[in-house]
Amino acid sequence: MEDYVGMAKMNRPSSAIAGGIAGTAILSLLMILLEVQTRSQVHIFDAIARFVGLPNNILIGFVLFVAAGVFAWPLLFIALEPYIPRGPDPAARGIVFAFVLWLAFVIAGRGSIGWPLIIVYAGLTLLAHLAYGFTLGAVYASLREENVADTA
Amino acid sequence: MRNGWPPTLAVPDGGYLLGGETETENEKPSGLFRWVTSVDHKDIGIMYIVFATATALWGGTDAMMIRTELLTPGAGPWDPVTYNALFTTHGLTMLLFFVTPAFTGIGNYFLPLLLGADDMAYPRINAIAFWILPPAYLLVRAGLITEIIAKALAVIGFSITSLFALQPPGTGWTMYTPLTTQMVNPQIDLMLLGLHLSGIATLLAAINFIVTIFTERSDDVSWSTLDIFSWTMLTTSGLILFAFPLLGSALIMLLLDRNFGTTFFTVDGGGPLLWQHLFWFFGHPEVYILVLPAFGLVSLILPKFSGRKLFGFKFIVYSTLAIGVLSFGVWAHHMFTTGIDPRIRASFMAVSVAIAIPSAVKTFNWMTTMWEGHIRLTAPMLFCIGGIGTFIIGGVTGVFLAAIPIDLLYHDTYYVVGHFHFIVVGIITFAAFAASYYWYPLLTGRMYDQLLAKVHAWLSIVGTVIAFGLMLINGALGLPRRYATYPEQFASLQQMMTIGAFLIFAGVIIWLYNMIQSYRIGPVVMDADVWNLKSIDQFTREWQWFEERLEERRRKIRGE
Ligand code: HEM
Ligand SMILES: [Cu+2]
Question: CA angle, corner B446, sides to B128 and B48, nearest 5?
Answer without folding.
Answer: 15
